[in-house]
Structure to design on (950 residues):
């Protein structure tokens, strides 16, 4: 019971910290001091205090976008095992619910953007749904590999680090899946080199441009939901890359948190060392991610 | 008892349009009687159908009501009744004096014929009902036959439906030769040679695939769905094309010892239909054509489920059978519900704006709130998103696909697992397409004066839509309710003698799904309240769309449906073959220019029409032989007879 409580608390509290770590890493690479690690928390609390402006063209769809985005990310977080601990909710086929919850969030974020009737936000939402069309099969190829390797259909056992077929069979496919999931993670969470959340040019944005007209608490919810999505998808990747467990369950939590922060540093490093790709290259990389994990499946089917 | 209720329901539907013929064409009384008869027919029919779930119906020589029939009868009785109520306002006799009576007559007939097909146990009755259904649907497609495009859609439908009927004649003739009777039922394995069985399967795929709109036999479907009144489109897409699936499922259950490649063929056909259907839908800017292509996509998903079940039967994997078939059957229901909902909402939009073009609409969400909500429910359901019904049926097929990996054992045909990423691709593309459609129609601001004068439709139209929306939510939240019905369908499909079919509920965690859906709904409610509270505390003002500081944003600055689908269009241009006319930019001060893009049907417009034109051109070079001169014709006859004499 206490582990479930820790799971929920971590899921609610830790996500903005990842953004802080990424920001700090990028600042260090650029030779700046950068904002404090806890800056995302200050931003969120400030946004939740502020007033809001709603465009006269908008309807309930515009207000539903942030709410659905956050609720789906939270529920998806309940399906993922954090570290060596099993997820609070786990059943056969939960990986499908996991993927489709994010799809539901995407439906509402994209329609909320279209509700403003602005060209920029239309662009962002078109790009978001387009790139997900290629990210989604990559994710499912990854699930196929994990399901085959762990001989199970639920995320907790898929990610628990035991491989009945033997580590030798598992390793090549897992490497391919990890690479593909990392690309999916970067795309779905709008990181460089696929999208730049800090760019000043709306024409080149994907995710941020959809939130242009959101303000105050609604915008806070969008940021919080996006951080949570990064956290949850990061937790999946972490378990694929490092499915280690410690004998002491409490140490496991420490390992998990350290791993997540390490992942955030890694993302920060990638962001510092690479330039943003041109928009036309994003689909190419996503197809590559798809094919990587498809090869992972084929390796197991021979 | 139950069988008589069903027969009464069929009879009432068949006669529902007849009284209207005796009233004046400007009199609304006929339509009132017709819709009452149809609703009564549906109530009796549904009572009999649901009753048949508990009390077995004795199998007669002509009629059989088993688990499979029940599953198909329920949407056959439900959706036409709702559509009929909707039609009293949408296609009222006063507004359409010329074709309202005809529409109602054939609307009742097609419903009755569909129900008859689903219960007939005799090949002759099946064929008669099939032909009545096909011909009534032709008259429904050509409701507005004064329009040339409608007549063309009708001819195309007539040709393809008769190709389908022709294959059925061959199918039943072969069956008659093989078994010696017109009775429909399982074929004994020792009686028929494998070659004949394969022929029967191929004929069934052609005949029923054509009716279902399976690619590449779909050519009639988009125009027929787009040109009919919307409640007829709802009936055609929600119910009529499913009768093809019914036939396919029935015939595969009768044929003995299916080889594995049958299931493989269906999987491939289903995957092709699913992906190409949704890709073609992305390119459309006619709202109803877009929905029609989504029917092809969903038929693809259903056929993938059937394929999985068939492979499972060949390999004796009962889990694949249960999951694949349950997914297919549940998707038959779900697609019936959400596609009917979407077509009815689209009809409400067309009723309000008098246009089908996405790029003429926009901002209707504010003037038509109920329609917008219903369309949103349908869109979320068709994308297979939780917590609605589409998610449940896709989940069944997904789990079936994951099981085919051979969890814990090695299996041949594990490649069937590739169904999962294909479904994921279809789902993501469908999501893109419905964000586009919902956004272009209901969000933003009106793009033309069509949209500015729109108004919400009346209760006769909104209530049937709301009923369908509630059913979509209901199956999504409590899927365990329908599981026993699906179990009966699976038992009816499995060959006689198989006892050890696992119950669906033991393979799929229905409890968790509904708990997840309820939690999602609860979280949404909680966060909505929290956000509303914060917004009121922080204070909210309203202004124009900020959009990085435009002082006066206009409706023409919005992203259009075509621009929304443009990136995907370039990615899938090799499928869509878009015909684009880009204006030339020459002068410094441009005059008025237009950009046009149109996505033709990949098979009909890109392949078949050019091919037929080529053939016609070759044959036209023989035209000199037909000079209209009687002496020349007599001469040909003499030549021909001489040739015959010499040959013998």
């Amino acid at each position: 019971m206490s582990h479930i409580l820790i799971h929920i608390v971590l899921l609610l509290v830790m996500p903005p910290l990842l953004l802080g770590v990424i920001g700090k890493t990028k600042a260090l690479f650029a030779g700046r001091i950068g904002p404090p690690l806890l800056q995302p928390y200050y931003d969120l609390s400030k946004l939740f205090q502020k007033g809001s402006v709603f465009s006269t063209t908008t309807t309930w769809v515009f207000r539903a976008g942030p709410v659905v985005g956050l609720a789906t990310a939270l529920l998806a977080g309940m399906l993922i095992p954090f570290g060596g601990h099993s997820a609070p909710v786990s059943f056969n086929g939960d990986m499908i619910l996991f993927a489709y919850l994010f799809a539901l969030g995407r439906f509402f974020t994209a329609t909320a953007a279209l509700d403003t009737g602005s060209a920029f936000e239309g662009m962002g939402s078109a790009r978001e749904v387009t790139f997900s069309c290629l990210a989604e099969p990559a994710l499912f190829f990854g699930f196929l590999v994990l399901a085959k390797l762990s001989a199970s259909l639920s995320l907790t056992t898929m990610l628990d680090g035991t491989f009945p077929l033997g580590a030798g069979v598992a390793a090549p496919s897992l490497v391919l899946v990890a690479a593909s999931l990392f690309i999916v993670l970067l795309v779905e969470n709008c990181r460089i080199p696929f999208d730049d959340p800090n760019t000043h040019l709306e024409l080149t944005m994907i995710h941020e441009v959809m939130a242009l007209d959101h303000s105050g608490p609604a915008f806070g919810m969008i940021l919080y939901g996006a951080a949570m999505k990064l956290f949850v998808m990061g937790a999946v990747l972490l378990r694929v890359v490092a499915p280690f467990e410690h004998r002491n369950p409490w140490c496991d939590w420490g390992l998990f948190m350290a791993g997540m922060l390490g992942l955030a540093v890694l993302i920060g490093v990638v962001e510092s060392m690479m330039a943003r790709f041109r928009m036309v290259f994003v689909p190419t990389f996503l197809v590559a991610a798809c094919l990587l994990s498809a090869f992972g499946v084929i390796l197991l089917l021979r | 008892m139950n069988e008589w209720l069903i027969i009464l329901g069929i009879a009432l539907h068949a006669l529902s349009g007849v009284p209207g013929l005796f009233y004046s064409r400007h009199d609304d009384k006929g339509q009132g009687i017709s819709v009452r008869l149809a609703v009564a027919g549906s109530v009796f029919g549904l009572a009999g159908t649901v009753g048949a779930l508990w009390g077995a119906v004795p199998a007669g020589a002509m009629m059989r009501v088993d688990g499979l029939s029940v599953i198909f009868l329920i949407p056959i009785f439900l959706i036409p009744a709702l559509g009929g109520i909707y039609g009293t306002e949408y296609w009222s006799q006063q507004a359409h004096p010329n074709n309202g009576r005809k529409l109602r007559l054939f609307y009742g007939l097609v419903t009755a014929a569909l129900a008859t097909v689903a219960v007939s146990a005799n090949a002759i009755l099946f064929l008669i009902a099939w032909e009545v259904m096909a011909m009534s649907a032709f008259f429904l497609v050509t409701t507005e036959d004064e329009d040339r495009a409608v007549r063309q859609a009708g001819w195309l439908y007539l040709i393809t439906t008769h190709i389908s009927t022709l294959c059925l004649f061959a199918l039943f003739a072969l069956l008659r030769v093989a078994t010696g009777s017109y009775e429909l039922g399982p074929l004994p394995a020792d009686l028929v040679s494998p070659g004949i069985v394969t022929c029967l399967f191929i004929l069934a795929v052609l005949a029923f695939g054509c009716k279902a709109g399976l690619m590449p036999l779909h050519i009639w479907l988009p125009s027929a769905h787009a040109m009919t009144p919307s409640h007829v489109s709802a009936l055609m897409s929600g119910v009529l094309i499913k009768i093809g699936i019914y036939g396919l499922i029935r015939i595969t259950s009768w044929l003995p010892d299916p080889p594995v490649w049958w299931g493989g063929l269906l999987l491939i056909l289903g995957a092709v239909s699913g992906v190409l259907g949704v890709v073609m839908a992305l390119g459309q800017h006619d709202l109803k054509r877009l929905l029609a292509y989504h029917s092809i996509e969903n038929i693809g998903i259903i056929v993938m489920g059937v394929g999985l079940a068939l492979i499972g039967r060949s390999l004796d994997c009962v889990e694949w059978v249960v999951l694949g078939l349950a997914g297919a059957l549940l998707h038959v229901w779900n697609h019936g519900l959400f596609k009917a909902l979407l077509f009815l909402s689209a009809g409400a939009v067309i009723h309000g704006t008098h246009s089908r073009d996405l790029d003429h609409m926009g901002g209707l969400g504010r003037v038509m709130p109920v329609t917008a909500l219903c369309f949103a429910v349908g869109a979320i359901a068709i994308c297979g998103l939780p917590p609605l019904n589409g998610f449940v049926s896709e989940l069944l097929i997904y789990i079936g696909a994951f099981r085919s990996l051979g969890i814990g054992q090695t299996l041949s045909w594990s490649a069937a697992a590739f169904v999962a990423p294909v479904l994921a691709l279809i789902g993501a593309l469908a999501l893109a397409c419905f964000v586009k459609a919902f956004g272009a129609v209901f969000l933003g601001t009106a793009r033309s004066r069509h949209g500015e004068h729109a108004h919400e439709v009346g209760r006769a139209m909104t209530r049937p839509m709301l009923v369908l929306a509630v059913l979509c939510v209901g199956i999504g939240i409590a899927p365990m309710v329908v599981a026993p019905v699906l179990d009966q369908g699976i038992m009816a499909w499995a060959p006689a003698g198989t006892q050890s079919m696992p119950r669906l509920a033991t393979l799929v965690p229905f409890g968790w799904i509904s708990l997840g859906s309820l939690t999602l709904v609860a979280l949404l409610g909680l966060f909505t309240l929290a956000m509303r509270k914060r917004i009121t505390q922080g204070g909210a003002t309203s202004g124009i769309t900020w959009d990085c500081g435009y002082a006066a944003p206009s409706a023409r600055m919005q992203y259009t449906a075509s621009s929304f689908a443009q990136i995907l269009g370039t990615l899938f241009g090799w499928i869509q073959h878009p015909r684009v006319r880009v204006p030339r930019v020459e002068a410094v001060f441009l005059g008025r220019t237009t950009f046009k893009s149109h996505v033709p049907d990949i098979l009909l417009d890109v392949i078949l029409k050019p091919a037929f034109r080529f053939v016609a051109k070759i044959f036209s070079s023989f035209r000199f032989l037909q000079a209209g001169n009687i002496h020349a014709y007599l001469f040909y006859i003499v030549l021909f007879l001489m040739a015959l004499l010499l040959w013998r």
About this structure: Residues 93 and 173 of chain A are 21 Å apart (CA to CA). Chain A is about 70% helix and 0% strand. The longest strand of chain A covers residues 52-55.
